[in-house]
Design a protein that fits this description.
Layout (H helix, E strand, L loop, with lengths): L2 H10 L4 E3 H4 L16 E3 L4 H14 L3 E4 L16 E4 L6 E5 L4 E5 L4 H9 L3 E2 L12 H7 L6 H4 L2 H4 E7 L5 E4 L25 E8 L1 E2 L3 E9 L2 H14 L4 E8 H7 L15 E9 L2 H17 L5 E3 L4 H12 L11 E6 L5 H15 L5 E6 L4 E6 L9 H16 L17 H4 L2 H14 L12
Parallel strand pairs: 2-4, 3-4
Antiparallel strand pairs: 1-2, 5-6, 6-10, 7-11, 8-9, 8-10, 12-14, 12-15, 13-14, 13-17, 16-18, 17-18
This protein binds flavin-adenine dinucleotide (FAD).
Length: 458
């Protein structure tokens, strides 16, 4: 064992350090089952240990790649064989739930679903929610500024973080564990670490906002014939529900059909409509909210905004509807598998999708293309899989087709997943030269030796 590894082991104890061989039996990520590579993987149990590890890496000029739940989609956690992986898996305690102040103090490795379930016992809710809830961590959610299915009502992770504790590249601890909703005392430094993908500092603890647990949830799966109805229906339900609309998720027919193929999810509606929306409202009065929701749906039907709909009558039926939207296992065997996460104004979406379909089918005779999205947030996801083409630059060719039209409408190559390694060649399509130069100056100020998640974003 080298001096460096011995010193690491002294910091974190025997069980806290895995050597390169032990690391290689772990998968790279949720999306990539090939073996992880690293000089070693360290699993600190306390913030003090994280500080000591980073101080040591700073002395030895060792690169550090932080791992949360490994569900990120942009290769933000990819490590090389000389890198040290810093896993947050043992820094996973919920330290405090404050029902009066409506905050939770958590360590960065707490799994999102664990936090959701714990605060529920106090009649509270942590509103961030996404399909990876069972694996992704609060630290990873902060580092990626995660979005998910409730953004339309509660905002992205950035809006839910009150305080942060962060360790800088040289081991300095920045404790900014604010719990106030309002605090304009100087710069709001914590925001620098939200969405910066572990390149400026390691998040070790956070104080997050909680909300009162809703007492009612009413949802619907709706089928629609025209994209203009999707947009009009969103405006109509949002207005009619007076702030209760929590989710408005769109699936194009090809996605809906693929995930409701035999053996996957049951389809409660005929499978040949062009668009399907899952929408949900949460409120405080079960009886009145249910009646109001049903009346709203009837009115939308009368206005011609909906072609067909089902309203789940139980929690189990609701889960089945949501599984159609969230469980895309049916698509995970696609090879190649290129996944996208773009944002653009809702008025441009229909034309954008038609353009992509046309360009992809002109370029490849067989190119499965599945689209869905957090449409209320202007955020679309695609799975694209061009067949029978083993060109070395295949991914780049698809990227060009997907990203090129975004520039004109002011869209973004990353709505909620970040840049990581995968999108760094395309950052300049969404950020201008001056913005990128300032980002690089900030990186240089925080991490002059480029040790934290090097090569990611830029
Ligand atoms: C089924 C599925 C559904 C998804 N749905 C959504 C969705 O709706 N919305 C959405 O936004 N994302 C979604 N994602 C993507 C992913 O879940 C999020 O990006 C999530 O926030 C990543 O959390 P993680 O703990 O897995 O982070 P990881 O994947 O482990 O890491 C992501 C990035 O954060 C850095 N990082 C992790 N922890 C820390 C830390 N403590 N300090 C500093 N840096 C850190 C890593 O270095 C890496 O750059 C989905 C993924 C899957 C698999």
């Amino acid at each position: 064992m080298t001096d460096f590894l011995q010193q690491l082991e002294e910091i974190v104890g025997k069980g806290g350090l895995l050597g390169s061989e032990q690391v290689s039996i772990r998968n790279k990520s949720y999306w990539d089952a090939s073996p992880m590579k690293a000089r070693a993987l360290v699993r600190p149990k306390t913030t003090e240990q994280v500080c000591a590890v980073l101080k040591l890496c700073h002395q030895h000029k060792i690169n550090v790649v932080t791992h949360g739940g490994l569900t990120g989609t942009v290769q933000g956690t990819l490590s090389g064989k000389a890198d040290l992986v810093l896993s947050m898996e043992r820094l996973n305690a919920i330290e405090e739930i404050d029902p009066q102040g409506r905050t939770a103090t958590v360590q960065a490795g707490v799994v999102l679903q664990t936090l959701q379930e714990n605060v529920k016992q106090h009649d509270l809710m942590f509103p961030l929610d996404l399909g990876a809830r069972g694996s992704c961590t609060i630290g990873g959610n902060i580092a990626t500024n995660a979005g998910g299915v409730n953004v339309i009502r509660y905002g992205m992770m950035r809006e839910l973080v009150l305080g942060l504790e962060v360790v800088l590249a040289d081991g300095t601890l920045i404790s900014s564990m604010n719990r106030m909703l309002k605090n304009n005392a100087g710069y709001d430094l914590k925001q620098l670490f939200v969405g910066t993908e572990g390149t400026l500092g390691i998040v070790t603890r956070a104080i997050v906002k909680l909300k009162e647990l809703p007492l009612s949830a009413n949802s619907a799966l709706v089928a629609v014939n025209e994209f203009s109805q999707v947009v009009d229906l969103l405006k109509f339900v949002d207005k009619s529900l007076g702030g209760q609309l929590t989710s408005y998720e769109l699936m194009w027919r090809n996605y809906y059909q693929a995930v409701t193929e035999a053996g996957w999810h049951e389809s409660p509606l005929p499978r040949n409509y062009p668009y399907y929306v899952v929408l949900e409202a949460q409120g405080a009065d079960p009886q009145a909210d249910k009646e109001h929701f049903q009346l709203m749906m009837e009115a939308a039907m009368e206005k011609g905004l909906i072609e067909d709909a089902v309203l789940p009558k139980s929690e189990a039926e609701r889960d089945k509807v949501w599984a159609i939207r969230e469980d895309f296992e049916a698509l995970l065997s696609l090879r190649p598998q290129f996944i996208y996460d773009v944002s653009l104004p809702i008025k441009d979406m229909d034309h954008y999708i038609q353009t992509l379909e046309q360009r992809l089918s002109e370029r490849w005779s067989q190119c499965p293309f599945y689209a869905l999205g957090h449409i209320g947030d202007g955020n679309l996801h695609f799975f694209v899989s061009p067949q029978n083409d083993d060109s070395a630059d295949l991914h780049h060719q698809v990227n060009q087709i997907i990203y090129e039209p975004l520039e004109q409408c002011g869209g973004s190559v990353s709505a909620e997943h970040g840049i990581g390694l995968e999108k760094k060649a395309y950052l300049s399509l969404s950020r201008n030269a001056e913005e990128i130069a300032l980002m690089k100056s900030v990186k240089n100020l925080f991490d002059p030796f480029n040790l934290l998640n090097p090569g990611k974003i830029f």
